Amino acid sequence: MNYNRLLIVSIIIAAFISIGFVIEDNNETPIALIKKIIKDVSYKTIDAEDWEVAKTGVPLKSGEQVKTGFKSLALVLFTDGTGLLRVRENSIMYIYGDREDKKINKNTFIEKGLIGFDINKQEAEEFKFTTPTAVAAIRGTAGYIEVGSDSSTTIVCDYGKIEVQSLIGDKRKAVIEGGAALSISPDGEILKGAISSEQSNKFSKTKKTKVKKIFIETEDGTIELEFYPEED
Prior knowledge:
Elements: H1 3-18, E1 32-38, E2 41-44, E3 52-53, E4 59-60, E5 64-68, E6 73-78, E7 83-87, E8 92-100, E9 103-119, E10 127-130, E11 134-138, E12 141-147, E13 153-159, E14 161-166, E15 173-177, E16 180-184, E17 190-194, H2 197-206, E18 212-218, E19 221-227
Parallel strand pairs: 9-10
Antiparallel strand pairs: 1-4, 1-6, 2-3, 2-5, 5-8, 6-7, 7-9, 8-9, 9-12, 10-11, 11-14, 12-13, 13-16, 14-15, 16-17, 18-19
């Protein structure tokens, strides 16, 4: 394990402890499942050393990971119907769940990349996203969270409300509502404002999940190729 990965793991553990989140390693009940796959998607089970090629319907238990490659997409659906995640290209995320009676408190850690989300209103359960620089609490909203190569975090809120706390520096808190965006720099500085045209376009693109197909006739039969269309 190199220094950067050790740092990320340390941040994850510290973040979960700071927000009182418990990881149930022995819980065999799936928290989510991979609903749809486009191109290069893999997943890693708990304590596994290698990534496995993901297939539609693969269940995800607490502590397991999903990774997407170039021009790839994974749709992850929570088994209790509380939300849908769109794991865009070149992203890595971890799924965590803490069962309490009939409810499941969830925390999705985004190591890198961009995750679009549609989360139903939560009455009693917790639904959180964690990144190397922030933790966001969500009740019912849509938007996206992006983690840059420098571990900076950008959060866009389409509607509803998102409560955010920086995990770096002074660990400040902020709230954004529908139509607003927030960014947290690697040193913990928080900037808020209205959703920019660039962010609005990016949010629209996160919701695109359709692929195109072409068929090539060969001597051995027809070959079907599926690809993710170029985005303007």
